[in-house]
Design a protein that fits this description.
Structural class: alpha+beta
Number of strands: 4
Number of domains: 1
Shape: globular
Distance between the termini: 28 Å
Radius of gyration: 13 Å
Strand content: 5-15%
Helix content: 25-40%
């Protein structure tokens, strides 16, 4: 099965940057909606709100040398991802 989404539907990271290729469902099968950093064995690893997730991701990107503005830019539409839609 090919990637349904180009970006993780929880954090927005490009799926091609996921070293494992995708998250995993409870039965171990691949879940192409979410990356392995967000979703493992049928459960989200990050339990906070979308705002907390945005802040968490921004900090991680800045730790890797990304300017604060770009980190904000990449996370500003996170509320539109499948996990956070209401």
């Amino acid at each position: 099965m090919s990637h349904k989404n180009k970006f993780c539907q929880s954090c927005g990271m490009p799926m091609k940057k996921d070293t494992e290729g995708s998250g995993r469902n409870a039965d171990g099968t691949r879940n192409y909606l979410y990356c392995s950093y967000c979703y493992q064995y049928g459960s989200f690893l990050f339990k906070g709100t979308v705002e907390e997730m945005q802040e968490f991701c921004q900090v991680k990107m800045m730790e890797q040398g990304m300017p604060k503005f770009l980190a904000w830019l990449f996370t500003r539409n996170m509320k539109r991802l499948e996990r956070w839609k209401q």
